[in-house]
Amino acid sequence: MSKKITTIIFDLGGVLIDWSPEYVYLKEFRGDREKMNWFLEHICAWDWNVNQDAGYPLEKATQERIVLFPEYKELIEMYYGRWEEMLGFAHEGTLQILKSLVNNPEYRVLALTNWSGETWPKAIAKFPWLQWFEGILVSGDEGMRKPFPEIYELILSRYNINASEAVFIDDSKANVIGCEAVGIQGIHFTDAPSLEMQLRTLGVSLN
User: Fold this and answer.
1) Taking the model in full, what pTM does it have?
2) At a CB cut-off of 8 Å and minimum separation 6, what does 125 contact?
3) Calpha distance 145→92 (Å, rounded)
């Protein structure tokens, strides 16, 4: 019989916070989604961005990219120069689930996010409800990121969490697989109603 869940750990971007470079670049490419997608796949690509989530300096990353692609200098500078515009809104359905959990003394509620330490203060300023968490582990401040085991092991040790009593929610399947490798139960987030159902199946109270 599995142990009772006592700790719920949330990812942030894609689960609770809407974030997309599209909010900046679709306008810059005058609505041409094909050209925008090419830029975001080849110039300011996802694997380049996640390197900054692990603590690589934004200015250094930007200048190195400009050296590689000087013809895209202005567009590259926008990625972090206008990063705040890429922050959308909170996902209200998931936020209600979070609120229910933090109001329940049965549970500890934390967050584990891949996020640049340099842009993190902007998120804190925009979303006051981030203060609800008992603790938030930010990858860019730690110099490590999901889905590697070290970051899951770090949150377990820092907050004295029993892995077998914890569940981690993330919209990335790779990150869910990463948490399960260290003994944390994972939920692959798709939408708030599905999350609520999966949590209830694990015996988590959302009343």
Assistant:
1) 0.94
2) none
3) 26
Q: Are 111 and 43 in contact (CB under 8 A)?
A: no
> Which residues of 66-134 form beta strands (DSSP E)?
87-90, 108-113
Q: Which residues contact 68 (CB under 8 A, 6 or more apart)?
A: none
Q: Is residue 155 part of a domain?
A: yes
Domain boundary among 51, 86, 121: 86
User: What is the tens place of the pLDDT at every residue in 32-91?
Assistant: 999 999 999 999 999 999 999 999 999 999 999 999 999 999 999 999 999 999 999 999
Tell whether 120 is covered by a domain.
yes
**In sequence order, what DSSP letters do the residues of 183-201 get, joined into one string?**
T-EEEE-S-HHHHHHHHHH
Residues 107 and 157 in one domain: yes
Note whether residue 119 is domain-resident.
yes
> 71: Cβ–Cβ under 8 A, 6 or more apart, which residues?
none
Is residue 78 within 8 A of residue 28, CB to CB? The reply is yes
**Residue 152: φ, ψ to 5°:** -70, -40
Contact 25, 49 (CB under 8 A): no
Residue 39, domain extent: 20-86
